């Protein structure tokens, strides 16, 4: 049966005074070392002895010695107290400078196009910080799972999180390969998707994601349930399947930019492409930030604006040319 253990208030009171007296065999020298009066040291030791229920020192006018209880207490308390001091120093160090293990929960899609250059420059700037990247689609509880921060699309981040933008907003676009469109007409309206094979994305909750579009008649957003031959759990898998001609995919524009530029994909339904908030770094709260995370946040914010926007420039150019047409 599991027992409940608690640390009694004041359980460590007097231990440091005891250890100093035991080392110097003198209440006066212990007081000088700890910067207090001899009477304060004597009072602290008396309180400790009362709490333990045994005399720890033999006192005479000429010397101070340890009782058997004092010897045994010293043998166990000294290494334990030294470990406690060492633990405090380690924790203090992590609270004063960027150091230690920085754990980030991220989706696979952002690693090559966003996170790799960012992490490379951060590691060079802060060599005392070790960065661990845990790749997964799940929206996990950062605190419960031991993560310092996460990276996700803005619409998936809980309201109680602090969010720092990593990218500006970008379009969510529908793409297909030239091979897929051989012998098929390209959709010009969202209703045309009923005649097309559409690749679907299953959220970490288990639900199939709907496809979102701008409703240009009233300026709102509509969601459509599509169907097709493949269900994937992440965007990179959907991107690969679209390039292979399995079906149409709705993806963040930056992810498809390279394939579009290379002619491996073409975009359709451009007038209906909605804008989503972008990618964000998020974390639980300002008061709990250690220097390692603060350094990473500052590093993100210090990146040149052009660097932060570079990965969506193709999307912006396509949007501009679409409007001109």
UniProtKB/TrEMBL annotation:
SUPFAM superfamilies from the UniProt entry: Periplasmic binding protein-like II (SSF53850), Winged helix' DNA-binding domain (SSF46785)
UniProt-listed GO biological process terms: DNA-templated transcription
Molecular function as annotated in GO: DNA-binding transcription factor activity; sequence-specific DNA binding
Signal peptide: none
InterPro entries documented for this protein: LysR-type_TF_proteobact-type, LysR_HTH_N, LysR_subst-bd, WH-like_DNA-bd_sf, WH_DNA-bd_sf
Domain HTH lysR-type: 16-67
Gene3D superfamilies for this protein: 3.40.190.290, Winged helix-like DNA-binding domain superfamily/Winged helix DNA-binding domain
Residues spanning the membrane: none
One Pfam entry name: HTH_1
Keywords, ordered alphabetically: DNA-binding, Transcription, Transcription regulation
Family: Belongs to the LysR transcriptional regulatory family.
Entry protein name: Transcriptional regulator, LysR family
Provenance organism: Paraburkholderia diazotrophica
């Amino acid at each position: 049966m599991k027992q409940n253990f608690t640390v009694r208030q004041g359980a460590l009171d007097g231990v440091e005074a005891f250890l100093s007296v035991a080392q110097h065999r003198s209440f006066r020298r212990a007081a000088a070392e700890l910067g207090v009066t001899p009477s304060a040291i004597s009072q602290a030791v008396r309180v400790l002895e009362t709490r333990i229920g045994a005399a720890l020192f033999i006192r005479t006018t000429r010397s101070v010695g340890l009782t058997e209880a004092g010897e045994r207490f010293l043998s166990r308390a000294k290494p334990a107290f030294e470990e406690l001091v060492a633990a405090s120093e380690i924790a203090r160090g992590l609270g004063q400078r960027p150091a230690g293990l920085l754990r980030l929960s991220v989706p696979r899609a952002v690693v090559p196009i966003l996170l790799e250059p960012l992490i490379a420059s951060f590691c060079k700037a802060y060599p005392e910080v070790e960065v661990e990247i845990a790749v997964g689609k799940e929206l996990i509880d950062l605190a419960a799972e031991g993560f310092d921060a996460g990276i996700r699309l803005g619409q998936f981040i809980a309201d109680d999180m602090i969010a720092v933008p990593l990218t500006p907003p970008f379009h969510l676009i529908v793409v297909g390969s030239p091979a897929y469109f051989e012998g098929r007409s390209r959709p010009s309206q969202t209703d045309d998707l009923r005649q097309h094979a559409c690749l679907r994305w299953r959220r970490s909750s288990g639900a199939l994601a709907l496809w979102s579009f701008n409703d240009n008649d009233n300026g709102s957003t509509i969601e459509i349930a599509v169907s097709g031959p493949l269900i994937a759990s992440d965007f990179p898998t959907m991107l690969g399947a679209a390039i292979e001609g399995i079906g149409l995919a709705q993806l963040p524009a930056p992810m498809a930019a390279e394939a579009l530029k290379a002619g491996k994909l073409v975009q359709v339904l451009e007038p209906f492409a909605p804008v989503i908030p972008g990618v964000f770094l998020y974390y639980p709260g300002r008061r709990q930030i250690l220097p390692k995370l603060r350094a990473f946040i500052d590093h993100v914010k210090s990146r040149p604006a052009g660097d932060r926007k570079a990965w969506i420039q193709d999307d912006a150019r396509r949007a501009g040319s679409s409007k001109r047409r």
